[in-house]
């Protein structure tokens, strides 16, 4: 049973200081409150950590877990806290295990196409380090400038390049994990292929820190594409936009990115970050192709032809590095731009088969209009993953209630379209109340049994997923 009311808090702080040193332990209310928040805007002032700690190596994490296990103290692993599902909120107090000081890129092996990293490594920093070896780490969530590898693995985050290259789960080869009782395990090997027994590595990927604490990761890298081209294709109808995507794919072209921005997103981003976006169109597709230079011209010509065949109103092509960067900044600014519309922004994350994108987007608009909520819809249309950015004032009880109702209807809509609750943001505590509708009951039972096996005392990130 979790000790939610720590009667011996002073002993807890003192014990953590003995393991980590005073400089790596925070215990004031303000410090604990700051690290008990994330990007979901749902922090409860009464649900804050009892102590925040900053380990610098795996042995320290093991000692912390042994102490927590012996004393029934909840432990929540945290990286940058940029998640959007409440995955690192300390719902039952306890210890926040912050990994910002375990931030080393231990090794990049060009011959084996792997790297070994600690959980506090920032994704963009890893991409830049790999680029120096002419290698590429494709997973790229929108917040990659601050998002860290530990959280990315814990939530199996994705990003625009998921359509061609896959999400984080497709790049994790091996993990070093500290279990609930402090035991340190390695889940596989550094080999790119390993089917020796059960795939424990993938069991921890996307588990949101509920099965163990990731302290090191072996990740796959790929050769950096020689060249790329970026374009924005505008359409006057959502149907034509969707048809263009299907035609591109059916013509045996696999763009590295094929993302959607609706009219509200285009208008909001252009207002926030003026870059020449056409704001009178129903939607735009951001399309990136990459590979050998000799193959890109033919792909580019074919994509242009397909888009115009499907009534594209206009196509912007980036002809310089600066123009390419401008398009990408516009795309990645969608969340920040929406934040200009109201005090809070909540980004949801649902997935449907690509053929159901149009009814999903239309349904999201109807739901948000019904509850008088401002929404900017964007996402990875190539793999059916749509993100409504909903702007509202969560301090207003009416707006908060409207949002909760809209969120429930949004999840029901996605499931009715043969979709699911999350493609890359995770479940956390934001969607846990709905998981029984998204996961078959026998499978849900097995998941809970796995949780009990790895965490018999229920101290690892309690209140998440289930």
Summarize the structure.
The protein has 466 residues and is of the alpha+beta class. It has 16 helices and 19 strands.
Explain what this protein looks like in three dimensions.
Helix 1 packs antiparallel against helix 3 (58-71) and helix 8 packs antiparallel against helix 10. This protein has 16 helices and 19 strands. It is globular. It folds into four domains: 9-98, Uridine Diphospho-n-acetylenolpyruvylglucosamine Reductase, domain 2, CATH 3.30.43.10; 105-223, 2-Layer Sandwich (Uridine Diphospho-n-acetylenolpyruvylglucosamine Reductase, domain 3), CATH 3.30.465; 227-335, Alpha-Beta Plaits; 342-434, Alpha-Beta Plaits. The model has no long low-confidence stretch (mean pLDDT 94). It has helices spanning 9-20, 29-34, 58-71, 123-131, 149-155, 162-165, 200-204, 238-250, 263-272, 293-309, 321-332, 334-338, 357-370, 397-416, 435-438, 441-454, and strands at 25-26, 51-53, 75-78, 95-98, 105-109, 114-117, 135-136, 172-178, 184-186, 213-220, 222-223, 227-235, 257-262, 283-291, 312-317, 344-347, 350-351, 374-380, 385-392. It is of the alpha+beta class.
């Amino acid at each position: 049973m979790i000790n939610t009311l720590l009667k011996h808090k002073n002993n807890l702080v003192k014990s953590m200081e003995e393991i980590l040193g005073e400089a790596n332990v925070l215990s004031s209310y303000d410090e604990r409150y700051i690290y008990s928040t994330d990007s979901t805007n749902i922090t409860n002032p009464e649900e804050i950590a009892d102590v925040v700690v900053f380990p610098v190596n795996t042995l320290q994490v093991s000692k912390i877990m042994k102490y927590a296990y012996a004393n029934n103290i909840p432990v929540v692993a945290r990286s940058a806290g940029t998640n959007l599902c409440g995955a690192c909120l300390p719902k039952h107090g306890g210890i926040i295990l912050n990994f910002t000081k375990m931030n080393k890129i231990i090794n990049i092996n060009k011959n084996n196409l792997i790297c070994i990293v600690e959980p506090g490594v920032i994704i963009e920093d890893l991409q830049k380090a790999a680029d120096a070896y002419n290698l590429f780490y494709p997973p790229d969530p929108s917040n990659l400038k601050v998002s860290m590898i530990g959280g990315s693995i814990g939530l199996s985050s994705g990003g625009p390049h998921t359509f061609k290259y896959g999400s984080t789960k497709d790049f994790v080869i091996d993990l070093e994990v500290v279990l609930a009782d402090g035991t340190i395990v390695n889940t596989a090997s550094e080999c790119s292929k390993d089917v020796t027994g059960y795939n424990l590595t993938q069991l921890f990927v996307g588990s949101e820190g509920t099965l163990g604490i990731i302290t090191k990761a072996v990740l796959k890298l790929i050769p950096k594409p020689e060249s790329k081209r970026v374009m924005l294709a505008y359409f006057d109808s959502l149907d034509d936009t969707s048809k263009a995507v299907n035609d591109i794919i059916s013509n045996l072209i696999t763009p590295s990115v094929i993302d959607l921005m609706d009219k509200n997103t285009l208008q909001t981003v252009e207002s926030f970050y003026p870059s020449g976006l056409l704001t009178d169109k129903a939607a735009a597709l951001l399309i990136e192709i990459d590979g050998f230079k000799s193959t890109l011209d033919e792909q580019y010509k074919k994509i242009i032809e397909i888009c115009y065949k499907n009534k594209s109103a206009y196509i912007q092509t980036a002809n310089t590095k600066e123009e390419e960067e401008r398009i990408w900044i516009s795309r990645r600014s969608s969340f920040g731009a929406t934040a200009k519309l109201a005090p809070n922004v909540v980004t949801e994350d649902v997935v449907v088969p690509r053929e159901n994108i149009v009814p999903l987007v239309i349904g999201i608009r109807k739901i948000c209009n019904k509850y008088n909520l401002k929404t900017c819809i964007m996402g990875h249309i190539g793999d059916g993953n749509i993100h409504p950015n909903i702007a509202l004032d969560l301090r207003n009880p009416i707006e908060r209630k409207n949002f909760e109702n809209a969120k429930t209807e949004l999840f029901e809509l996605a499931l009715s379209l043969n979709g699911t609750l999350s493609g890359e943001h995770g479940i956390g505590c934001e969607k846990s109340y709905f998981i029984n509708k998204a996961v078959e009951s026998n499978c849900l039972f097995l998941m809970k049994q796995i949780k009990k096996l790895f965490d018999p005392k229920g101290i690892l990130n309690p209140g998440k997923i289930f």
